[in-house]
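Hey team,

Filing this mostly as a record. A colleague (T.K.) asked me to run one chain through the structure pipeline before their review meeting, and I want the input and output archived in the tracker in case anyone asks later how it was produced. No errors, nothing strange. Just documentation.

Input sequence:
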Amino acid sequence: GVKMYRVLLSDSESDASGTNVNVVGAVTVSSSATQVDTFSSDSYTGVHYVVVGYNSGESGTPASISEALVVTDGSDAYVGNSQISTKGTDQLTFSATLSGTTVALKAASTSGSSTTVNAYRVHILRGAAGASTSLQVLTIVVSFKVSLKYQTIRN
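Output structure:
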């Protein structure tokens, strides 16, 4: 069967952590890369983020939702994302960095300096496999599909 989960995020979330998930509290990002979250490569190999962005100061008050996938091999950090934005273009751009064992997810906004970002994350550790010395790669496959239905409501 198919299992579905709904994650609701507001503009004023606070940091919260759980066994395999965290809520990333509100962070204000600008047009330059701003750190949104960090994790230790000793603890996790990959993280799946659901990120919402909102800017009430820009015309049209643009909003976005993104899935950002971050993975590290211990030497570098990599990020990929999919996004839906009311701007018609991406509201956020993502980058990932690795410094020592700290992986950082960063976001930059195309909506100016007062874009509020909140996120929900699921983190995963890919343990060593047997006696193999080959590089182990964590692959996260995400299907992001949106279906919109419009309905006219009449009195």
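Quick notes for T.K.: The chain has no helices and nine strands. Confidence is low (pLDDT under 50) at residues 130-155.
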